[in-house]
Design goal:
The chain is mainly alpha-helical. It contains 11 helices and 7 strands. The chain has a 3-stranded mixed sheet, with no helix packed on it. Strands 1-2 form a two-stranded parallel sheet. Helix 1 links the parallel strand 1 and strand 2. It is globular, with a radius of gyration of 23 Å. The chain starts with 5 loop residues before the first strand and ends with a strand.
C-alpha cells in the first residue's frame, strides 16, 4: 500500500530501536529498499519529563491554539534542531511570541515604509520571494542535517540589518527616502521573507498575512487575546481622537496607561498598533 521505498521516514528517537530497525530489516529481507532519509526527532518535554500519551501529559494542538497563535507554536517547536529536546513551558512560548513580534513587526514596518507606491515592492508574491537566492550560510546550515540553529542565526542577522536600514531611512519618510536606503530596506525585507518562507513563517504569506497586516496585536492569539485587542483598540481610538484634537495631555495619559499595563504602542503611517512588552 505504501510502496517499496520511502523518501523520508521520521519518528521519535525512542522508536529507532527496535521498531524502525525492525521495519528496515523486514523491508530489506523482502528485497526492497526502505528509506532514503531518516529523521529521528528528540522529545518535547514538560518539566523535564517526556511528553507522551502513555504518561498522560500530552498537549493537544487544538487546545493550545486557543491560547497561542499558530506561528508562535511553530517557532517554539520547529526552529530547533530535530534531535534537540524542546522544553515546553510558558517561558518557551513567551520567547517564541516575542521573536514572532520582532520578525513580523520588522516586515510590517518595511511594508508600511513602501506603502503608497503603485506596487509595494516588499509585498512581492510568494513565487517571487521563493525565487530569491538564499544566503550561503543559511543554505549550508539547512543542508547540514537541518541545522535550524545555524539557519536561525542568519535570520537574526538579517532581521538586525533590516531594522538598522529602516531606522536610517525613517527620518526621510517613506516617499522622500534616499533611493539607496529604500532599496537596501526593501532587499533586506525580501531576504528575511525568503528565509522565513523556508520555515513556513513568511509574515506576508498565508495563513499569517491577514493578521499581520491588520496589526491584530500580540501573536499570542486565542480568544482571550482577541478580547484584549478589542479593549486596547478602544483606548487607541480614543488616543487618536485626542491627538487629532491636539489634546496631547490626554493622548499621553492614554499611552502611559497602556504602558503601565505592559502594552507597547507603536505609531505608524497607517495608525497605531500594539504588542505586549
Amino acid at each position: 500500500y505504501l510502496g517499496e521505498t520511502f523518501d523520508i521516514h521520521g519518528g521519535g528517537i525512542d522508536l529507532r530501536f527496535p521498531h524502525h530497525e525492525n521495519e528496515q530489516a523486514q523491508s530489506h529481507g523482502a528485497g526492497w529498499g526502505f528509506a532514503r532519509h531518516w529523521v529521528h526527532n528528540a522529545w518535547v518535554t514538560i518539566k523535564g519529563e517526556k511528553m507522551s500519551k502513555s504518561l498522560g501529559n500530552s498537549l493537544v494542538v487544538a487546545e493550545l491554539l486557543k491560547r497561542y497563535d499558530a506561528a508562535v507554536l511553530r517557532l517554539a517547536l520547529g526552529t530547533v534542531h530535530h534531535r534537540s529536546t524542546v522544553e515546553f513551558s510558558e517561558e518557551t512560548l513567551a520567547d517564541a511570541a516575542a521573536l514572532w513580534e520582532r520578525l513580523s513587526g520588522a516586515i510590517l514596518r518595511a511594508y508600511e515604509f513602501c506603502d503608497g507606491e503603485d506596487a509595494n515592492p516588499v509585498d512581492a508574491p510568494a513565487e517571487q520571494v521563493r525565487a530569491r537566492a538564499l544566503p550561503a550560510e543559511f543554505t549550508a546550515a539547512m543542508d547540514e542535517d537541518l541545522n535550524l540553529a545555524g539557519a536561525m542565526a542568519v535570520v537574526h542577522a538579517t532581521l538586525k540589518a533590516l531594522n538598522v536600514a529602516l531606522t536610517q531611512a525613517a527620518p526621510s519618510g517613506g516617499q522622500g527616502a534616499d533611493d539607496d536606503l529604500r532599496a537596501s530596506a526593501t532587499g533586506l525585507a525580501l531576504d528575511l521573507r525568503s528565509q522565513l518562507d523556508v520555515l513556513g513563517l513568511d509574515p506576508l504569506a498565508e495563513p499569517w498575512r491577514t493578521r499581520v497586516l491588520d496589526g491584530a496585536g500580540s501573536s499570542q492569539g486565542g480568544a482571550a487575546m482577541e478580547a484584549l485587542d478589542r479593549l486596547i483598540r478602544h483606548d487607541l481610538e480614543e488616543r487618536a481622537q485626542a491627538r487629532a484634537a491636539k489634546d496631547w495631555a490626554r493622548a499621553d495619559a492614554l499611552r502611559d496607561k497602556l504602558t503601565e499595563a505592559g502594552v507597547v504602542v507603536e505609531d505608524s503611517p497607517s495608525g497605531a498598533r500594539w504588542h505586549l512588552a
